[in-house]
Design brief:
With about 80 residues, the protein is α+β, with helices and mostly antiparallel strands. The chain contains two helices and four strands; from the N terminus they run βββαβα. A four-stranded mixed sheet has the order 1-3-2-4.
Length: about 80
């Protein structure tokens, strides 16, 4: 059973599939999932708050090798939906 993700945010499985203008983040509380999101999210106050939380929790030590966001997958998807509007 496949889950369809909106075009602007998608689950990604390999490190070589990040298109120009996007970046990968790891999201989840126990099991981390990789998402590819637009760089334009970086200028959004809601996303900046989430990045501040990531900095507080992980600092510069991201165990997945990339930016790790400390929230549930559902919360992250909800936040990105709001950012697309």
């Amino acid at each position: 059973m496949a889950i369809r993700m909106p075009r602007i945010i998608k689950k990604s499985s390999t490190s070589g599939d990040v298109p120009k203008g996007y970046f990968a983040v790891y999201v989840g509380e126990k099991q981390k999932k990789r998402f590819v999101i637009p760089v334009s999210f970086l200028s959004q106050p809601l996303f900046q708050d989430l990045l501040s939380q990531a900095e507080e929790e992980f600092g510069f030590d991201h165990p997945m090798g990339g930016l790790t966001i400390p929230c549930s997958e559902n919360m992250f998807i909800d936040l990105t939906r709001r950012l697309r509007k």
